[in-house]
Amino acid sequence: QVQLVESGGGVVQAGGSLRLSCAASGRTFSRYIMDWFRQAPGKEREFVASVSRSGGSTVYADSVKGRFTISRDNAKNTVYLQMNSLKPEDTAVYYCAGRTIATPDYWGQGTQVIVSS
Predict the structure, then answer these.
(1) How many angstroms separate the CA atoms of 10 and 30, rounded?
(2) pLDDT tens digits, residue range 66-108?
(3) What are the φ and ψ backbone dihedral angles of 68, each rounded to 5 degrees?
(4) Distance between alpha carbon 103 and the CA centroid of its chain, in Å?
(5) Three-state secondary structure readout of 16-29
(6) For residue 13, what are the CA distances in angstroms to 2, 89, 106?
(7) Segment (H or E) for 98
(8) What are the φ/ψ torsions at residue 90 (nearest 5 degrees)?
(9) Do 17 and 8 form a contact (C-beta atoms < 8 A)?
């Protein structure tokens, strides 16, 4: 069993930055591909970014490419999402997730990000 706990959300003005963290319990963190998803009010949850087990490979949604950076520190069992040049449309609850293959096996509880215009 893996538990994921996100932190770092908050309220920021458009153009600002935030860094989200997701701390994982257990000793198997490096076995999981880690993802960030987000869900805006009234919308479906959408993929944001993914990082490989080693951290050497990343994938981003087109909407955040060039603005967000996902990274991980396997020694600290933590995955990060650095968000720059934030826009009001980035307002959402952000979730981290861990998976071994295609679909997430574990989810965090989410952290709220609000970007004011």
Answers:
(1) 28
(2) 999 999 999 999 999 999 999 999 999 999 999 998 899 999 9
(3) -110, 150
(4) 15
(5) CCEEEEEEECCCCH
(6) 34, 12, 31
(7) strand 92-99
(8) -85, -5
(9) no
